[in-house]
Every structure is written in structure tokens, then in C-alpha cells.
Amino acid sequence: NPLRVQGRASADHARQLEIDAVFDPDGSAWQAGGSVIGLEISPELCRSLPGERSPPVVQLEGVRGQAAINFRLIYNARNTPPLDFEVAGQIARGRVDDPRLAYPLTDVRAVFRSNRQGITISELTGRAGPASLRLDAQCSRAGVSGPMSINLESDHLLLDAKLLEMLPEAWRTQWHKFLPSGEVNVRGKLVYDGQTWQPDVTVQCLNVGMSYHKFPYR
User: Fold this and answer.
1) Do 31 and 73 meet the contact criterion of CB atoms below 8 Å apart?
2) Is the N end or the C end of the chain the one with fewer CB atoms within 10 Å?
3) Would you say the C-alpha torsion 58, 62, 66, 72 has a positive or negative sign?
4) What CA–CA distance (Å, rounded) separates 157 from 23?
């Protein structure tokens, strides 16, 4: 008969963990599901993970928030690949501190799902300084080198020196030719096929000023 294991526990960084697993006697197949409630995402959690800290884990040290996660794992030695999985959850009261960002992301909320096909992030909202943000993204299992699509909305995005520092060098050159200032609303879709980006972006200017370098009158 199959062996069934059910359990509930708590941990330093999670209020409650639940698991329900079933194992075939010969070990060739098993499945497990469960949930993690009240998971506190923090630098302390990242540093407590076992093994060598990979670059993605190190980058997560700038993320804080509270998460609720449901997961499902299915293993069958006769399948290719033998392991199938799905992880889904929500993040609330999040904050992201990263030197590459113009402003810290605050009040972050998001819904996410990850499986063998890739990662989906939906209903991500937050604030970056005076700007409000909303983002939906789909990324293949290949990661940042694989196909992905991003839908982004930002209202009252401030055109200032902090934003300038985030831009690629070619964009900075254009920035210095026009010296823009003020606020903009941005609506954009970015599609990456694994080799090139295909952007479709609309910018609505709000009280924006600029000074072209060949006609330096604001």
C-alpha cells in the first residue's frame, strides 16, 4: 500500500507549513502538496538557506515582504522529465532595495505562479518614489536568456538624475541632448524572443520641460 505522510509545523521565518505526501512502496513515484503561510521574506531568510548562496539568492537579500505559497510536486520515474511541479502564491507588504533602481520599490503586491513552462507574475503593483507601478510578466523556464513578455504601466514617473543613472549609456547620450525634466505616464509592452527586444511604448508628458542642445532655450 502507498505510504501517506501528513504534517504541520512552524519555523523561524514562517507561521505555518503544511504538507500532504503519498509515496509508492517501490519508490518510483510520489506526489506531495502543501502550503506555507506567513512566510517572512528577508535578508535573514536568504542567509539562513543551506548550501552556497547563488547570485539569484544574493540578489533576493534586497527583498522584504510577506508571502503565502501553495506547492505541488509530482515524481514518476517513467516520465520524461520525471519531476513536475507548480508553485503559486501572493506577496504583500513588499519592499525591494536595489542600487540599480532609481527609488526603492515599496507597497509591493503581486501574484505569481511557477511551473516547468516558466514563471508568471501578475497584478504586481507598487510605488517608486512619486511614481505608481503596475506590471504583468511572463518568462520562460530558460530565465533571462529565454523568451519573455512584460506589460508595464507607470504614472507620475519622475524624470530626474536618479532615473538617468538607470539608463543604458546610449540612452544617457540622448538624455543629455534634451535634458528633460518633469513627470510622465508610461504604458508599454516589451517582448523578447530570446535574441531581440520588441518594444511598444507610449509616453504621456505631464508638465515636461526640455532644452535641445542645438537650441539651448528651455
Assistant:
1) yes
2) N
3) negative
4) 53
